[in-house]
């Protein structure tokens, strides 16, 4: 069945607004192009740390620029929660957490000293498999050393995830620079 395009309801509405673009450079190679739209609270950034976008239409401040300079740049974790996801496998945090688990299992007398030692050695010499949480989880699942100290090693020895390093670097390095530019533009003294 074909639809006659001339009979389709063509009613629509639109709103046009002007966005502001900020080209930021730092150091030898650092760069970011950030576009904001005051009307809808839209934030869009392309940078050498990745691309990030989000909209805060109900930011609760006098202007979106006030929100950026006074709120957004002060809390990198809040910003990251809006523009990124915790998908990066954190090998170091994972190994530390697992070692604490082994200590707790041993304290609870749920395994022998020898079993705890074997599990500890297994974790200590485990490679990070190029950052693959799936490969590590398979090793945990197949591990006789970890199965000996707990029935469900996959539940006890879960991996730790974090925001990707590029996103964290954007939030900690670029966002404060941008907030300072905005503060100067709207005449707010540095309150960071």
Question: What are the key terms here?
Answer:
192 residues; alpha+beta; 2 domains; 4-stranded antiparallel β-sheet; two-stranded antiparallel ribbon; 6 strands; 44% helix; PhiTE_072-like
Describe this structure in words.
This protein has 192 residues and is α+β, with helices and mostly antiparallel strands. The protein folds into two domains: 18-85 and 165-186, no CATH class; 88-162, no CATH class. Helix content is 44%, strand content 16%. It contains eight helices and six strands, in the order ββββααβαααααβα. A four-stranded antiparallel β-sheet has the order 1-2-3-4, with helices on one face. Strands 5-6 form a two-stranded antiparallel sheet. A hairpin with a 2-residue loop joins strand 3 and strand 4. Helix 1 packs across helix 8 and helix 3 (91-107) packs antiparallel against helix 4. The N and C termini lie far apart (61 Å).
């Amino acid at each position: 069945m074909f639809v006659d395009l001339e009979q389709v309801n063509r009613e629509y509405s639109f709103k046009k607004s002007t966005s502001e673009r900020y080209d930021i450079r730092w150091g030898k190679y650092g760069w970011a192009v950030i576009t904001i739209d005051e009307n809808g609270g839209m934030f869009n950034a392309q940078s050498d740390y990745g691309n990030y976008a989000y909209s805060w239409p109900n930011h609760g401040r006098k202007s979106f620029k006030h929100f950026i300079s006074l709120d957004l740049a002060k809390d990198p974790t809040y910003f990251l929660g809006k523009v990124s996801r915790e998908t990066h496998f954190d090998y170091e945090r994972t190994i530390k957490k697992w070692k604490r688990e082994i200590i707790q299992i041993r304290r609870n007398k749920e395994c022998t000293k020898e079993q705890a030692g074997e599990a500890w050695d297994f974790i200590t010499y485990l490679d990070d498999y190029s950052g693959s949480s799936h490969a590590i989880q398979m090793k945990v699942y197949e591990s006789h050393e970890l199965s000996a100290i707990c029935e469900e090693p996959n539940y006890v020895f879960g991996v730790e995830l974090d925001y990707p390093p590029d996103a964290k670097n954007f939030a900690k390095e670029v966002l404060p620079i941008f907030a300072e530019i905005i503060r100067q533009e709207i005449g707010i003294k540095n309150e960071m």
